[in-house]
Structures are given as C-alpha cells and as structure tokens.
Specification:
The chain has 153 residues and is α+β, with helices and mostly antiparallel strands. The chain contains 4 helices and 7 strands. The protein has helices spanning 28-36, 77-85, 109-120, 125-128, and strands at 40-44, 55-57, 60-62, 65-69, 87-91, 96-102, 140-145. It is globular, with a radius of gyration of 14 Å.
Length: 153
C-alpha cells in the first residue's frame, strides 16, 4: 500500500503525487462546521491553477481528520480530477479552505465507515453502501488543509 500522503497510479496515467506533509491544520471550528455539514463542495485545481467547478459530495469527520469518498467508484470524473491535481478547495458549513487531496492511512477505514454510517444511515443501506465497506477504501480522499503559501503538490 502507498504511504499516507501519496497516490498510486490512476486510470490512464499517473496520479499526482502528494509527497509533503501539510503545514496547516484544521481549526476546531472548521472541523466542527465541516464535520457537521450535510454536504461539502469540492473543486480540484486545473493545471493552470484555476479551480474547476465545484461538485457536491458527502464528507465525514473521523477523529480530527476529514474524508470524502467517491460514491460512483474510482472512475468518477471528480475523483480522478482530484487525484490528478492533488489539490483544490472545499467549502461546507461556512468554512472555505484550500486543501491537499491525500491518500488516507490504511488503518483509518473502519473509523471512516463508522462515521459514514453514523452520519448518513438515515438515507438507507443502498445509498450508504456505496461509500462504505472494503471497496470504499480505494475511493477515499483525506482532506488536508493547505496554506496558500505552500506549493501545490
């Protein structure tokens, strides 16, 4: 398995590699607001540094970390663009923040599954089932805050 903060190869080419640790951190208010938000808007960076249009997805907080998953698998266009760009911006529950898209540590998926169940089970097993379980780990992105001064990975 690839170490946290790095991506392995993607469909039709290489994923952008995130080889640095973010020097920024989430504030308690950001974690609370984003973690409680029903949905998150995510925009990945284009090669020229501009943002792509935002897509709306679910977000969960596991501990003091934030994660998103692709409900439609690894070929979902927003997911592929996020992996290739390695960075973008999110907004949810008030906060808007530049982020790095990183691969989560292999031992966090049980906690991420539990967070999805706790937050979204009211939508039923067919919907929540698309973002939990053994296949979901391959479509998980760890959202790390990024200072604007940091280089884009």
């Amino acid at each position: 398995m690839t170490p946290p903060g790095r991506h392995d190869s993607a469909l039709k080419g290489e994923r952008k590699t995130v080889a640095h640790e973010s020097t920024a951190s989430w504030t308690r208010d950001e974690l609370t607001a984003i973690g409680r938000a029903e949905e998150l808007e995510l925009a990945s960076l284009r090669p020229d540094g501009t943002l792509r249009p935002y897509v709306t997805i679910w977000v969960v907080r596991a501990g003091d970390e934030l994660y998103v998953r692709s409900a439609r698998g690894p070929a979902n266009p927003w997911f592929l663009r996020a992996l290739r760009s390695g960075a973008g911006r999110i907004r949810a529950g008030g906060p808007e923040r530049d982020v790095v898209f990183a691969q989560p540590a292999p031992d966090v998926h049980v906690d991420i599954d539990a967070a999805y169940h706790a937050k979204y089970d009211r939508y039923g097993p067919a919907i929540v089932g698309s973002v939990v379980g053994p296949n979901a780990s391959a479509v998980t992105i760890h959202l790390l805050p990024r200072n604007r001064k940091e280089p884009i990975p």
